[in-house]
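Hey, can you fold this one?
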Amino acid sequence: MLKNTKTRTLVREILDKSNSPLTPAEIFEKLKTLDVTLSSIYRTLDAFTKEDIVIKANDQKGTALYTLNKDDHYHYLECKNCHQKIQLNYCPYHKVNHELSKKYNFDIDESNVVIYGVCNNCKTKCPSGHAICNHEHNNNN
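Sure. Predicted structure:
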């Protein structure tokens, strides 16, 4: 059982209010006016991960993402261009998990999935009309 500290309480509150996973830097940005250091956020997230209070995942670039462990599993959509994360509030793999469990006689306790693609905002910004845009955009328009 972890001792309740100011930093731990604040980090937990930030993660609880978030609709998507956050990086340590994003958490720090939200707490920077409250005299919390980035190193204390990393220590808190490490402790929370060991205690299964948070779920740690990595995006395509290897950046650590943290979400509060509110459920047995989580599923997100992540844009490959802007890295926007959208949490799915249901399990799109429920049927697949059931079939795998039955086929392999395997009890599935959780599933954690990040599905990568391109959000509508990025698709409409790309002048070439490609789903994955490698062009630099002029944001002054």
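The first strand starts at residue 54 and ends at 58. Let me know if you want another pass with a different chain boundary.
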